[in-house]
Specification:
Keywords: Signal. It holds the Pfam family SBP_bac_8. By secondary structure, the protein is an alpha/beta fold. The protein has 2 domains: 183 residues, D-Maltodextrin-Binding Protein, domain 2; 137 residues, 3-Layer(aba) Sandwich (D-Maltodextrin-Binding Protein, domain 2). The chain contains 10 helices and 13 strands. It has a 5-stranded mixed β-sheet with strand order 9-8-10-7-11. Strands 5, 6, 12 and 13 form a 4-stranded mixed β-sheet that branches. A two-stranded antiparallel ribbon has the order 1-2. Strand 8, helix 5 and strand 9 form a beta-alpha-beta unit. The longest helix is centred in the C-terminal third of the chain and has 19 residues.
Amino acid sequence: MAALLLASGLAGCGGEEKASAGPAELAGDTIEDICAAGTDEGTVRREATPDQAGDWPAYGSGFTDEFDIELEVTDGAGGGGRDLPAKFLPEKQTGQDFSSDMFQARQYEVGVLLNDDYTEDIDWAALGYPTEMLSTDADHRGLRTERHAFGLTYNSEKYSEDEVPSTYEELLDPKWAGKIAIDPTGSQLGPLGMSEGLGLDGAQEWFDEFSEVAKPVVFEGNTASAEAIATGQFDLTLNTSDHNAQALTDEGLPVEFKFLDYVPLNDLYHFVVAGTPRPNGAVCFAAWWSDPEGGTKVMGELEGVANDDIPPGTPEDSKVIAAKTEEDIESAAVFADYVAQALAG
């Protein structure tokens, strides 16, 4: 039976195991049964980014229409998932009810929350989801909602595809000095630190040389970076995902995305908050949001975002870097932090 298995969890990547809090069952063995039960639980509260919160009916009305479950979004993820621990940890410590029933985040941003105190251990596999769709913590608490591929975005009015780097090694060239935008969080580069990428030592050595030779300019934002490329503020950026770059290309802006020899994948997951009185509604929404005919379709139409295992257009000779273990997540987090600290000076 599909169940909220409140079993042993990790206090974060590499954390200690916690004692089981005991099982708390969902309403049925199928998403259909769970969604039916969700209609009686009340309004589901979900953390959302500012863009989504500002136009939520465009994103979530299809779910409410189909399942008769109302959604309330909290514009509390302005900094992405990395802001969520600072929100949930004090709520727990002061004995408050959690302000949301569920949230979306990158796994490495919320590792401290992936235990029984903060998130439910949903048995997604029992509900028919393959391992590739689940977060890589020991309990697979999260269901993947988006997969972003990162590479190089460039100004197509200034350069042809052949004139810009094809590998991370080719970025180590003084001719690009001061012309490459890079995000202060280092999150887009984090996966390079995984064993399937450059490895943690190799990634740090690469970044040290990149910083010295290419002298990247700190500039925050996925879409904002590509827009800065279009206006000529920079020539190249490593900040922009394939989806976001393509959306701007479709709008007629002079930006193009190029996959490099390594393709860091940045995944987002839905997690259900521990002890929520609306577990069925939250699981129902998570399932709908990851459905190709549900939220994934909506995100594709509104933001150009997809959730494919292998991003469309990935060259056969490029190596996709996707987290498969907790060690991978930890390596990505360590390297992203290394980049962030180096950029902060």
